[in-house]
Amino acid sequence: MVATNSCTQVSGYRWDFGDGTTSNLANPAHTFARDGVYRVCLTVTADNGREKCSDTFCRNITISGCRGIISFKKGQEGGITTDAELNEFNASVFPNPFGQRLSVRFENPSEQKVAITLLNGNGQQVALLSDESRAAGNHEVQFDVEALHLAEGIYFIAIRSEQHTSYKKVLYRK
């Protein structure tokens, strides 16, 4: 079976922050009133003139202390980046959008095992790009993603250790 997404023109966004508030902005900012675990969902609707389609991505997030702001903003060089409390590695990805190659920069606060994975828009792992012990300090890792045979679309780079997590939104174009 071959599935093709023919909806390419985004016509709407709906954020549900899991605390009773929503937004229809593409890049909203939200402050949570109190600590807790919230299920944050983004539904993107697209319309190519012949058909409409939508997809929803949800993630449970934990808010504690001063980490209660999520902000999504337009990134440099036309890409979209997620600058949020879920960027504990101070990570960046480039180019964005990306094609055959993708580079990931991050600051590792201490020597630890760090996994870098590529997730699809539903948060499912597409590929484990790296999983190794890394020294404290700045790192840049480059990946050749051509062998993954990705469909064009939105993906997430997840950088995780036992104590830290970063997510970066990326757009793949062939």
How much helix is in the residues? under 10%
Domains, number: 2
Order of helices and strands: EEEEEEEEEEEEEE
CATH class of the largest domain: Mainly Beta
Largest sheet, order of strands side by side? Answer: 2-1-4-5
Low-pLDDT stretches = 1-6, 66-85
**What name does the CATH topology of the largest domain carry?**
Immunoglobulin-like
What is the end-to-end distance?
A: 21 Å
* Continuous helix count: 0
Using DSSP, what is the number of strands?
14
> What do the pLDDT scores average to?
80
Quick take:
The protein is mainly β.
List the helices and strands and how they pair.
Elements: E1 10-16, E2 22-23, E3 29-31, E4 36-47, E5 52-63, E6 69-74, E7 80-84, E8 92-94, E9 101-108, E10 112-119, E11 125-134, E12 137-144, E13 153-160, E14 165-172
Antiparallel strand pairs: 1-2, 1-4, 3-6, 4-5, 6-7, 8-9, 9-12, 10-11, 10-13, 13-14
Word description of this protein:
By secondary structure, the chain is an all-beta fold. It folds into two domains: 8-74, Immunoglobulin-like (Sandwich), CATH 2.60.40; 77-174, Macroglobulin (MG2) domain (Immunoglobulin-like, Sandwich), CATH 2.60.40. Helices cover 0% and strands 57% of the residues. The protein has strands at 10-16, 22-23, 29-31, 36-47, 52-63, 69-74, 80-84, 92-94, 101-108, 112-119, 125-134, 137-144, 153-160, 165-172. Strands 2-1-4-5 form a four-stranded antiparallel β-sheet, with no helix packed on it. A four-stranded antiparallel β-sheet has the order 11-10-13-14, with no helix packed on it. Strand 10 and strand 11 (125-134) form a beta hairpin. It is flat, with a radius of gyration of 17 Å. It starts with 9 loop residues before the first strand and ends with a strand. Residues 1-6 and 66-85 have low confidence and may be disordered.
